[in-house]
Design brief:
Structural class: alpha/beta
Number of helices: 13
Strand content: 15-25%
Order of helices and strands: HEHHHEHEHEEEEEHEHEHEEEEHEHHHE
Oligomer: single chain
Low-confidence stretches: none
Largest sheet: 8 strands, mixed
Bound molecules: S-adenosylmethionine
Distance between the termini: 42 Å
Number of strands: 16
Amino acid sequence: MGSLLPAHLSHLPAPSADAVAHCRRLGKLIADEIAAAGGWISFARFMELALHAPGLGYYSAGARKLGAAGDFVTAPELGPLFGRTLARQAAQVLRAGVADIIEIGAGSGRLARDLLAELATLDCLPQRYLILETSADLGERQRALLQRELPRLAARVTWLDTLPASFAALVIGNEVLDAMPVHLIQTRGDGIAELGVTASDGVFESDTRPATGAVLAAANGLKLAPGYTTEIHLAAHAFVRTLAASLAHGVALLLDYGFPAREYYHPQRSAGTLMCHYRHHAHEDPFCLVGLQDITAHVDFSAIADAALQSGLDLLGYASQAQFLINCGITDVLAATPAENVAAYLPLAAQAQKLTSPAEMGELFKVIAFGRHHHMPLAGFTSGNKQRLL
Ligand SMILES: C[S@@+](CC[C@H](N)C(=O)[O-])C[C@H]1O[C@@H](n2cnc3c(N)ncnc32)[C@H](O)[C@@H]1O
């Protein structure tokens, strides 16, 4: 399907012959859907197919995605410090009477491994650790990793196809909201246009139509000046509403990169936040390397909070990742390894720096927490809770 690496991205590593064939198969599937739809699909549908088309989408198919040998590194991929620190917040919620953990979008399975191992050390294991994962490939990788690296606890882990209709649990989702499809809009002098995708001679291109329905309503609510391109996160809002509808009792912790609406839709961010990640290179062209690269948008945490509050959840906290991890005791976890043990201490210190430094993940990444019938203040928000900014 067209050129895999256009001239402006010719510096990126060339994909293998197998990867090229895979990309062409997915490109054809998307082009066929565009043709069947009359020549245009929304960007959200394009992103959904590029990331999640069964057996072919970036997340659904077999390539290594996360970690040093993949395309991007998430907090659990840096090493165990993130999961061990998050376990302290999990332990507080479990001790308050919630039996299970549900992890949404568990990636390689490393966060599940680190959380469970630390919760065992804290003598606070959940009854069950449930994983809701849309990618069959990642589900297999998670199973294999847990069997290999944490066999004594692997039996506690079960995979779900959908959320139970009603549950009591601590829900954890790290970098899941940013993988959900977004609509793209552009404000113009004469109204709001939606950017969609056309296919011509094997090449995907962007094309606009007047925005309608839920996309238009959401875009109007943002009150943007003309000449602004940005994302509308209908899928993430629907996900939060679904989660809220079935969370009968417990806490949901969602961690991701993003901002409150005031910062997200700042006049200077007039090109939006859509980004692609391929072998540790970030760029802004979602139409190349289809199925071989991640496509992602930052999270509008104000809209996530609105969706949860409108669904009857309580907002329990909102803080930068650095503040949250410091509140949870990241420095104590680090200090438990003596600095004289250089081989063990230095990697942990490097992880702490990446996770909390404002120049790395500390400030761009945020943690938001919701609850139902959970009345104890969460340890992660004891200081620096910024929920009033949402
Ligand atoms: C960016 S990765 C993050 C993985 C992992 N949480 C981490 O931090 O390393 C996104 C994960 O969410 C999964 N995912 C995407 N959309 C999902 C959805 N609607 N429900 C459940 N999982 C989803 C992907 O398959 C993948 O496992």
